[in-house]
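User: Okay, second chain of the day. Same drill as before: sequence in, structure tokens out.
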Amino acid sequence: MTLYAVDAIDDAIDAARAFLWPFDLGRWARLALVMLFVGSAGGTPPFQFGGGAPSGSGSQTPDVSGIPETLPPPGGTELAVIAAIFGIILLLGLAFLFVGSVMEFVFVESLRREDVRIRRYWSERWRQGARLFGFRVVLGALTLAIIGGTLAAVLWPLLVGEGAFSIGLLFLAIPVFVVVSVISGLVGGFTTMFVVPVMIVEESGLLSAWREFWPTVTGQWKQYVVYAVLSFVLQLVAGILASIVTVLGAIGVGIPLGVFGLVGVGLLSVSHLAGWAIIALAVLLFVLAAIVIGLLVAVPIQTYLRYYALLVLGDTEAEFDLISERRAAIRE
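Assistant: Same drill. Structure tokens below.
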């Protein structure tokens, strides 16, 4: 049996090379902007717990008689400020998610037509992007609800003060976390990689596209299992390579900017304002340069991964083939 996901590994390289080279600064810049919303693969750093209290000298202890035993509950103003902050963060996150959802269609259309036009594709596809946005919100909410509910059930005796924390229950909950995360990741990933192209082909909504795609994924489930495994490996390797290249690029720009920052340090003895201004400018330029480098590195990687998925989709169902001409050209 021919494994399309295996055959497409090399073909996707040829397709990405044909799309990105010869180098065109305008095309790469527009794709880098798209990557800002669809090409990131970062994670959150682990939470760090712990710390210690400084010890006093000798046998003396600080006088804490003037400190109240309990802090007063936050008032209405404090709660309003906290709620406003969380509301702003939530709105910004949803806005970013909405733009990213529409940009998924912009990216696929760019590969389909081999021409990057952000405003044109946005105006054509933003309604479908809104449907993808809604799906992602619902999927994320369900995932968090299941994981949060399971965690709350494990911690409930500790939260209500009627028992101690159970390590055994936590170990029983870990498989639930893993299964839910894997299923959620597969559904979200298949929606982005396969259902979005089907929505474009069929000019349909998301649920309708899933109904169209479902017979293909179930009828050729072995192909998609192989794709899921190989795609995970490819994304892992690509993430490592992207991190290495980005770090090397950041070091390259960090050296001259570091020298520039040292000039600011030297000026601190003469003018604090000028010195700190130069240091702040050096830091700002370094951060911006690192972001730009990361986005430019993501362009070929995400282009390759998206072509890889489009090739597998077209091999399993010719009706959903968005890149038939490019497929024929690279396989001649």
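The radius of gyration is 26 Å.

User: Thanks, on to the next one.
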